[in-house]
Design goal:
Number of strands: 11
Oligomer: single chain
Helix content: under 10%
Order of helices and strands: EEEEEEHEEEEEH
Radius of gyration: 16 Å
């Protein structure tokens, strides 16, 4: 299948790799099909690109790469809605934001995207866990900060 994107132009994707998100993403409920794009091989950062809206794409990470203690406990209803039969079937991503004014790179640990790797069903779930917030700092972009570690972190 060919899809149009504003960031990558026209790309070919395997129909079998399309994630089905019946509820969409928060604020983008009308987008129910996505693909993961690895723009830079081996990078921790990937793109979650909407199939049906060329302009909708999110930078995502595997939160375990930055927060090894991060854990998500799904409710029985959430696990059932994803048809998860085994915890090993789940793959998780969180969205990333870069604050233009200060260059702070953060991720939303409150609303992870959980994917069933067997069925490619996906949902963004909202956690009721006080340990997490919507803007956990993961680094600073080189262009947005004069901090010396900025070039190393992002």
């Amino acid at each position: 299948m060919r899809i149009e994107t504003t960031r990558f132009g026209t790309i070919d994707v395997n129909d079998q790799s399309i994630l089905q998100m019946p509820d969409g993403m928060l604020g983008f409920e009308y987008c129910t099909r996505f693909v993961l794009i690895e723009d830079i091989p081996e990078s921790a950062f990937k793109w979650l690109q909407a199939v049906d809206d060329a302009a909708v794409a999110f930078i995502v990470i595997n939160p375990a790469d930055f927060f090894p203690e991060y854990e998500v406990e799904l409710t029985d209803g959430q696990a059932e809605s994803l048809d998860l039969k085994d915890p090993g079937e789940s793959v998780m991503f969180t969205t990333v934001t870069v604050a233009r004014d200060e260059g702070k790179v953060t991720t939303n640990l409150v609303a992870p995207i959980v994917i069933n790797s067997r069925t490619l069903q996906a949902r963004q779930v909202v956690l009721q866990d006080e340990r997490y917030c919507t803007k956990h700092v993961i680094g600073y972009s080189a262009s947005g900060s004069s901090r010396p570690e900025a070039a190393k972190a992002a």
